[in-house]
Amino acid sequence: MSVILYSLDGCPYCEKAEAALDDHGIDYETRWVEALHSERDEVKRVSNQRSVPVLVDEEAGVTMGESDNIVKYVETSLAER
User: Fold this and answer.
1) Phi, then psi, of 63 in degrees rounded to 5
2) How far apart are CA 48 and CA 9, in angstroms?
């Protein structure tokens, strides 16, 4: 399984997404992003937005933002694999 979480150090929304992944034992790679929105080119490239967190589930072809959406996806899709 190839799951990537784009995250910003100290971001409470990112921490919420990380906690959901950790709580369900999901293996994932964290890609740390720059603090300045204008420098988040990689996040923009994969998600068409510069805000974080962004979760990429390469196996399912899913890319999403918003911590609440990510938590729901983790609980309903990733945890069941």
Assistant:
1) -130, 130
2) 21
Q: Which helix (H) or strand (E) holds 67?
A: helix 67-73
Question: Residue 14 belongs to what H/E stretch?
Answer: helix 12-23
pLDDT score of 79 more than 90: no
Question: pLDDT, tens digit, for every residue of 50-59?
Answer: 999 999 999 9
CA angle 41, 55, 39 (to 5 degrees): 15
Task: Give the C-alpha separation, 73 to 54, whole Å.
Answer: 12
Global confidence as pTM = 0.94
Contacts for 34-43: CB closer than 8 Å, 24+ residues apart: 35/8, 42/6, 43/6
CA distance 1 to 8: 22
